[in-house]
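Good day; I would like, with your permission, to put a structural problem before you. The record follows directly beneath this note:
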Amino acid sequence: MTEIFVDADACPVKDEVMRVADRHGFVTHFVSNAYMRLPSSANVRRVVVDQGPDVADDWIAERAGPDDIAVTADIPLAARCLENKATVVGPTGKPFTKDSIGMALAMRDLNATLRDTGEIRGGGPAFSKQDRSRFLQALEQAVQTIKRKG
């Protein structure tokens, strides 16, 4: 049975995940380092992990596998989930794939270096309505792809 794993600490699309999950009857694990308010649903599993680097990522990466969906903006976590054959969607609707993850990791490292040297400042653009819409489309597409396989 397909499950959805959400890297929930800074996830801007929790409500959208639940809309899709409820429509398809998928259990959804919201994994975070602290208690957070979540939509009320029989399909919601709140997972609060210990504080520490990558503890939530480890929990997700150890469980997300084939026919599951991971929702994260964390590129190293996306890579780990892809290694386990999970489908991975970023909160802006960008799917991570085996073909795109190498470039995403390289760009992450390059941007970190440029920020460290002062060549660039800040993060990316603000989250938009279009990002939310793209996310809903990408998540529904991921669900339909998994359903066709199974």
In short: The chain has one domain: 3-149. The beta strands are 3-7, 27-32, 44-48, 69-71, 87-89, 95-96.
